[in-house]
Each structure stands twice: as structure tokens, then as C-alpha cells.
Design brief:
Blueprint: E1 3-6, E2 9-12, H1 23-27, E3 30-38, E4 41-42, H2 45-58, H3 67-77, E5 83-90, E6 108-115, E7 130-136, H4 151-162, E8 167-172, E9 175-179, E10 183-188, E11 191-194, H5 205-216, E12 221-223, H6 228-232, E13 236-241, E14 245-252, E15 255-256, H7 264-282
Parallel strand pairs: 7-8, 7-14, 11-12
Antiparallel strand pairs: 1-2, 1-6, 3-4, 3-5, 5-6, 8-9, 10-11, 10-13, 13-14, 14-15
N-(5'-phosphopyridoxyl)-D-alanine is lined by residues 34, 178, 181-183, 202, 204-207, 240-243.
């Protein structure tokens, strides 16, 4: 049975109830995080909590809690192991529908876990490459806030599925921003490129780690604009997220990327990345 966290209580998921007037439900007036735990240990937990606090401040939801304590207890009550934790904080409920809100509202805090497949033993050959489409980025201009208003993301992913591929990449003002729920990287002549951090993309925790690893291991990288031509003529394209890790994209809008195979720079980064995960899991 799954145990979830709701407003100070740990309880079976069937018993967790939220008001129909909750602003998260009515307006998407809420923010969230998705945090992997490996063998019960939070992956880059401080960074995730830092981003949560950034999102909360940006949308003016006041909520200061012992996030680490809550999440670690939740993970332990769900058996530890490899779990992805979803944490959502809404502005709360005023018992009626009204766009305007009062600062006195009590935020709703909800968290649950899902199992993540065992990346423990995953190797290069276990990673399934993706095909993607490029679509217009119709989101707002505060994509640095991890808000639950995900309708544009959901619709483009569905569009990708309708077109028989697995991912949609957003393009705004002729520049690629990111994927429907992931950051974007390209490799050209051995150099790694990714869009600069701005309010047009989410500051991905995985993205940050990739740049740190590139720096540490002598992989040249640059945060720079990527337009459609550079994307399609890249030697390698990858996407990254907490749930999927780092995944190669081998076809975009029906055109093959590079030689249509997982690239050597991806492979190197994948190995560096899984090494960090394994060290965490074994407590080394
Ligand atoms: N999403 N960009 C967007 C729009 C995202 O939704 C995500 C992650 C990322 C990658 O961020 P990170 O490396 O911190 O996971 C980038 C999560 C996984 C989700 O919505 O489920």
C-alpha cells in the first residue's frame, strides 16, 4: 500500500483527501518538485529544495517546512529503495472559487512516491533513444518556476505521440528552449551546448550536474542559443531530467541526428552520471 503525505500526516493514498476548492485544483495555483531517492538517499536534495523555495517565493506562497524531514520519512515509510518523490505545494483553499487570494490561506502540501526502475544496473545498451518533434513554445515567460500549470507541456507531448514519436522540443523566437519535461543538449565537434539558464527554461537539477561533470572531466561546453539548423545538424542531441536521466535523441522532425546512434559524448556523460548515482547508492 502506498503511503502519501498530506498536510502534516502520513496516510494510505485512499485516505488522502483535498478540497474541491483547492486552488491547485481550480487554478493550477501551485508548484512542485520531482526528486529521485536512491536506496533511500535523496539525489541532489539540497538543490531540489532550493528550487522549490525559488518557485514558492516567485509565486508568493509562504511555506517554510522541514522538507528534508518530510521527504525522508515518506521514503522510509514506503520502504526506502529507489523512489521518485513528487512534492506539490498549492496556495490552499478558501472554500470558494475566486481568482483573488488572501495571504492567510493555509497551503496544501502533498507528497507521494513511485518506484523508479532499477538504474542500479543499467548500462549504455539499456537506454532507449528517442525521436522528437519541434513545436512552438506556447508557455508563459516564467518557465524557471516549476509550476503545475502544465497544459502546454501535456498537449505537445500528446502531439508527439500522435506523430509516433516520444518527445516534443519547444522553440521560441527561433531558439530551442527545452523539452516537454526535460532540458536540451546538443554536441557539435565534441563540444557540448545547452540553452542558457533564463526564465524561458527550467533550471534542471540534472542539467546542472551534467555541466558540473563536463567541467570536471574536461568535456568542453558552452551555454548558448540553439536554433533549428544547429539542432538538426548536431552530431548528438540529448535530453535530461530527474526521472529519465540523460537520453539520446536520434531523430527530430523525421530527420536523423548524426549517424542515428547513441553518440560517444553521450556515452561518456552517461557513464559519469551513473557513476555519481552508484556512489550515492553504495554510500561511497
Ligand atoms: N520535470 N524542463 C522541464 C519543463 C521539466 O519539467 C523538467 C523536469 C526538466 C528537468 O529538470 P530536472 O533535471 O530537475 O528533473 C526540465 C519533471 C521530471 C516532471 O515534471 O516530472
Amino acid at each position: 500500500m502506498n503511503i502519501v503525505y498530506l498536510n502534516g500526516e502520513f496516510l494510505p493514498e485512499q485516505e488522502a483527501k483535498v478540497s474541491v476548492f483547492d486552488r491547485g485544483f481550480l487554478f493550477g495555483d501551485s508548484v512542485y518538485e520531482v526528486i529521485p531517492f536512491y536506496q533511500g538517499v535523496g539525489f541532489r536534495l539540497d538543490e531540489h529544495i532550493g528550487r522549490l523555495n525559488h518557485s514558492l517565493r516567485a509565486v508568493r506562497i509562504q511555506n517554510d517546512q522541514d522538507w528534508v524531514g518530510i521527504l525522508e520519512q515518506l521514503v522510509s515509510k514506503n520502504g526506502g529503495g529507489n523512489l521518485s518523490v513528487y512534492l506539490q505545494v498549492t496556495r490552499g483553499s478558501a472554500g470558494k472559487r475566486s481568482h483573488a487570494y488572501d495571504d492567510s490561506l493555509q497551503p496544501t502540501v502533498f507528497a507521494c512516491c513511485t518506484e523508479i526502475k532499477d538504474i542500479w544496473q543499467a548500462g549504455v545498451d539499456d537506454v532507449v533513444s528517442l525521436k522528437a518533434i519541434v513545436t512552438e513554445d506556447l508557455r508563459w515567460h516564467r518557465c524557471d518556476i516549476k509550476s503545475t500549470c502544465l497544459l502546454p507541456n501535456i498537449l505537445v507531448l500528446q502531439q508527439a505521440k500522435d506523430e509516433g514519436v516520444q518527445e516534443a522540443l519547444f522553440s521560441r523566437d527561433e531558439k530551442l528552449t527545452e523539452g516537454s519535461a526535460c532540458n536540451l543538449f546538443i554536441v557539435k565537434r565534441g563540444v557540448l551546448y545547452t540553452p542558457k539558464r533564463s526564465s524561458e527554461i527550467l533550471g534542471g537539477i540534472t542539467r546542472e550536474l551534467i555541466l558540473e561533470l563536463a567541467d570536471k572531466h574536461g568535456i568542453q561546453f558552452q551555454e548558448s542559443d540553439i536554433d533549428y539548423d544547429r539542432l538538426l545538424s548536431a552530431d548528438e542531441v540529448w535530453v535530461s531530467s530527474s526521472t529519465r536521466g540523460i537520453v539520446p535523441v536520434i531523430e527530430i522532425d523525421g530527420q536523423q541526428i548524426g549517424n542515428g546512434q547513441k553518440g560517444p559524448v553521450w556515452q561518456k556523460m552517461f557513464e559519469l552520471f551513473t557513476d555519481v548515482q552508484r556512489k550515492l547508492m553504495t554510500g561511497r
